[in-house]
Specification:
single chain; alpha/beta; Rossmann fold; 6-stranded mixed β-sheet; 4-stranded antiparallel β-sheet; binds adenosine-5'-triphosphate; binds magnesium ion
Length: 245
């Protein structure tokens, strides 16, 4: 179970002569073993935030404390180690290696972490079972449906058993029912495996599983409510009659 405390996070992208300020002094705390949902308009900095929390990119300023350790201070080599051991990332477009089977995709992060063949096989079997994909283990990504690819994507993110999962619109490409299955899996990962989970999403059903829902606008957190409050508000807004035009 891992807690993450983000303070005064700033990310400026420089391209040629222009600058984009993607995060402008963002503060947030992600408690251990909670599902935090992040919502906000396109371009407000959601993916940037996940990338810097996940150590895929470095912030321009600020701190990100993972169980007390400031990730921003880590050397490049330590950051790679941190990324491999502490976080699993689930991408919107599944991000599987097309030439590898589902099982080989799941084994890849373990191979990079130097696990033995026995360890890789045992863990891949466990994960294929968890995401209910045992019958498709030898399929390549193009032989899987979108929802199946996303379940394998989740298994890949979990391969090295990281305490933290970061997911960027994991249901964005899926139909309603398949999206619901994926949300249920995240809930199970929190409840049974005590994972700390951050999900960027536009999916209104997130209130069903999120402990906390934060809104980002223009690179800053502008609101924080509980998942229950979020669900209640979503219900009111869908039930209220259309306003007169
Ligand atoms: N590598 C980059 N170089 C320059 N600017 C970037 C880069 N990545 C993102 N940006 C800019 O930073 C801002 C935040 O981008 P980000 O991808 O974090 O938004 P987002 O909230 O994830 O949006 P969406 O909902 O569309 O995915 C945007 O204005 C974007 O154009
Ligand atoms: Mg994004």
């Amino acid at each position: 179970m891992s807690e993450i405390v983000v303070k005064d996070l700033i990310k400026v992208y420089k391209t040629g002569k222009s600058e984009v300020i993607a995060l402008r002094g963002l503060d947030c705390t992600i408690k251990g073993s909670e599902v935090l949902a992040i919502m906000g308009p396109s371009g407000c900095g959601k993916t940037t935030l996940l990338n810097v929390i996940g150590g895929l990119d470095r912030p321009t300023a600020g701190s990100i404390r993972f169980d007390g350790v400031n990730v921003v201070d880590l050397s490049d080599a330590d950051l790679v180690k941190h990324r491999r051991e502490k976080v699993g990332i689930v991408f919107q477009f599944f991000n599987l290696v097309p030439t590898l089977t589902a099982r080989e995709n799941i084994e890849l992060p373990m191979r990079l972490a130097g696990k033995s063949s026995d360890q890789m096989k045992k863990r891949a079997d466990e994960l294929l079972k968890l995401v209910d994909m045992e019958p498709r283990a030898e399929h390549r990504p193009d032989e899987l449906s979108g929802g199946e690819q996303q379940r394998i994507g989740l298994a890949v993110a979990l391969a090295n058993d990281p305490p933290v999962l970061l997911a960027d619109e994991p249901t964005g490409e899926l139909d309603t029912q398949t999206g619901q299955q994926i949300l249920h899996l995240f809930k199970q990962l929190r409840d049974e495996y005590k994972k700390t989970i951050v999900i960027v999403t536009h999916d209104q059903r997130i209130g069903q599983i999120a402990d906390t829902v934060m809104t980002i606008v223009d690179g800053k957190i502008t609101g924080t409510i509980s998942g229950a409050e979020f669900s209640a508000n979503a219900k009111i807004s869908t039930e209220s009659p259309p306003s007169p035009s």
